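User: Here's a chain of 203 residues. Predict its fold as tokens.
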Amino acid sequence: MSDSRQHDYRFTELDPDLLSTPFRIQTNWHVITGTVSSGKTNLIDHLADKGYQTVPETGRLCFEREIAKGRTADEIRENMAAIQIAIKDMQLEIEHGLRADDVVFLDGAVPGSLAWSRAYGLDPNEMLADCFHHRYASIFILDPLPFQENGARNGDAPIAGYLDKWLARDYSALGYSVVRVPVLPPEERLAFVLERLSEGGLI
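Assistant: Prediction complete.
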């Protein structure tokens, strides 16, 4: 077992020296993120219905890919640390395939892997460099809804509050002005996001 699995990284702050890394590419991408069961997918679906380009949650895609290989949910969850690395790598691959000038709404982004990595015993600073490939145009963090189980996130309810806290801290540490989206009916959350972006001249 590697040393990173033995050390408790749950409360590891991001390295200030690494945080001075310059971003490589400014994008027009907007990140919709939040803890488990916060309504991200619902909001992304509404944005897609409005004709916006969207990218689905990579964690769900990665989980479905492993299921397609014949693995069970329990087998996948036996090594959640490895899954977090796979999710981060898939997210990087997806983002590298996007056009920086296009307006895109992402259901989560690379920096979200920092919080998840801590939760499953990994040092977030080992993947921090990957957060500087692209700078996002805006970050929206959805306030959590009552927890609902799904195949990819079964058993994650106990860490929901932890993830909510660290997502906000990590994006702020990376220099983003995080916008909190309150618990509202789906159409009102959609209006909230679009109004904020319109006011800022971002869409």
